[in-house]
Amino acid sequence: MPQHTAIPVLSEEVREALDRRLPVVALESTIIAHGLPRPRNLQVGEELEALVRAEGGVPATIAVLDGVPYVGLDKAQLERIAGDTAVRKLGHRDLAPALAAGATGATTVSATAFLAARAGLRVFATGGLGGVHRDWTLTQDESADLALLARTRITVVCAGVKSILDVPATLQRLETLGVAVVGYGTDRFPGFYLSSSGEPVDWTVHSPREVAAVMAAQEALGGPESALLVANPVPEAEQLDPDLHDRVLAEALELGRAEGVTGQAVTPFLLDRLVRATGGASLEANLAAVRGNVRLAARVSAAWAATR
Ligand code: PSU
Ligand code: MN
Fold first, then answer.
1. How much is the pTM?
2. Which residue among 12, 16, 28, 79 is the active-site one?
3. Burial 41-51 (b: 16+ CB within 10 A, else e)
């Protein structure tokens, strides 16, 4: 049985950076283990960490290994998350059973945000959040990401929510849950693979300093310890062709329904179908979005650290 006294376990580098109030960026591991094809996923995991470092920050990839939650992985730990096909997908609610069982798993946005905030991290980068699925009225499938972010004080830089979802319904849920959303350099909510989902956002910021100012205002207000979503669009030149997107997504949704895919398997199934059906183009758009988010998160983290 692992000891549960000082969890999560911070890497030495992350601990030192936090002590010195240097910028630290949390990174999730589900995108590596379940969101991207092997072996490219390991390269991407390493590349994302390098992007944070290139901006002067310290990366903290988060995962559970043998029942221990880690904030900041070493090379061997990252390799295990990327390479081991038995790695589970852990949402926030799975953490306690995983710890008790000594399990190894990659953390979704909900579990990563929870562990990051517990460790004192303020900024987190991912691809697209989970949200309300299109057939919600039948399945009640809404990602645990949303409710967790409603009660976790962390800034999440994302390319919106995954376009496989019901985007307007997800935005409505975020409003109901009281999660702040700002567009980064845009008044449109991004569409993950696409630069725009077509939906409006109420607030727009233009610089990392402006994001840090919103974070400071959240702290000054006190009140519900909710997240701040910084919705950062993939550059138009790197987005997936919108017509191709709509066509292959409709096919993937239909196939998922026909094959009876449900629960945690839905998101990885659809992402994988899209990669195949677009000949890898959706993967490139996904990666472009994540890279942009990681870079921006590092800059936001630096702007935040500068105000402390
Ligand atoms: N962003 C990506 N790829 C992913 C995910 C996000 O670009 O695979 C993951 C995140 O970990 C997110 C999860 O929390 O998908 C949502 O899964 P679900 O719908 O089962 O909550
Ligand atoms: Mn789900």
1. 0.95
2. 28
3. bbebbbebbeb
